[in-house]
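ARCHIVE CARD
CATEGORY: sequence design from structure
SOURCE FIELD: tokenized fold
FIELD CONTENT:
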């Protein structure tokens, strides 16, 4: 089977069709890694911050409703 692909093992050629290999080739570039990691960390930080703020607002409203009763 190795002779069919120019003497190389089939697994090397099979990896070209996997989407992970395209992602890894993009991530291996230094600038893309820094930009994507910065964007991902910023997104998660803002998402967690929004969840904390939302939780605080819900607690405040709930406490006000309990006091009014």
């Amino acid at each position: 089977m190795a002779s069919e692909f120019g003497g190389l093992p089939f697994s090397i050629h099979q990896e070209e069709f996997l989407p992970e290999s395209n992602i890894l080739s993009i991530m291996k570039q230094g600038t893309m890694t820094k930009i994507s990691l910065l964007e991902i960390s910023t997104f998660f930080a803002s998402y967690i911050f929004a969840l904390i703020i939302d939780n605080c607002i819900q607690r405040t409203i709930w406490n006000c409703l309990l006091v009014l009763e």
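CARD ANNOTATION: The chain has one domain: 2-68. The chain has a mean pLDDT of 69.
SHELF: design records, drawer C
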